[in-house]
Amino acid sequence: MGSYPWGPHGPQSGPNQVTPNPTPAWVPPPAPSGGSWSPPAPSYGGGGGGAAPTYSGGSVGTYIRRKKSYVLGVILTALFGPFGLMYVTFRGMLLMLGLLLGTPYMLARTGAYGPAFKRMPLEIIGRDAVMNRWWALAAVISVVWSVIGVWRHNRQM
């Protein structure tokens, strides 16, 4: 008997033989019993009135949606500015970062910061005197956006 790459305890077939796959490529879904199919109802975890809803995903898994904290949202946006918006909304973070970098750039292109920046508008992003003001404004807007975003998220729960 020759050597096999799967060891002595694997299937014992010759190198020119083909073994069929024991699992089928597609398994038809089971027929519905007694009517049309409907998604499973959400089950609320025990423990009190403030329990978060648990959505059963069947065999795929379980998705738990929880309420977000106002305090955590404000702290994250106060510390990290627009990056803290990631806790509430990822799209909001991207939009706020775009506004933080795009607005001074566009103002520099129009000549609002002088003729030198009109020729090289990307230089404005490296100027602390300009960007510190824009960062402070973006952080304040992000804190307000965070409070509104948490309120909207929790209201949908």
Q: Please estimate the helix content.
A: 40-55%
Identify low-pLDDT runs: 47-51
**Order of strands across the main sheet:** 1-2-3
The description of the largest β-sheet is:
3 strands, antiparallel
Q: List the helices and strands in order.
A: EEEHHHH
Q: Kindly provide the radius of gyration, computed on alpha-carbon positions and rounded to a whole number of angstroms.
A: 29 Å
State the oligomer: single chain
Structural commentary:
The chain is mainly alpha-helical and about 160 residues long. It has a domain of about 90 residues. Helices cover about 40% and strands about 5% of the residues. The chain has four helices and three strands. A three-stranded antiparallel beta sheet has the order 1-2-3, with no helix packed on it. A hairpin with a 5-residue loop joins strand 2 and strand 3. It is elongated. The relative contact order is 0.11. About 5% of the residues have low confidence.
Task: Describe the SSE topology.
Elements: E1 43-44, E2 53-56, E3 62-64, H1 70-80, H2 90-110, H3 115-119, H4 128-156
Antiparallel strand pairs: 1-2, 2-3
Would you summarize the structure shown here?
By secondary structure, the protein is mainly alpha-helical. It is 42% helix and 6% strand.
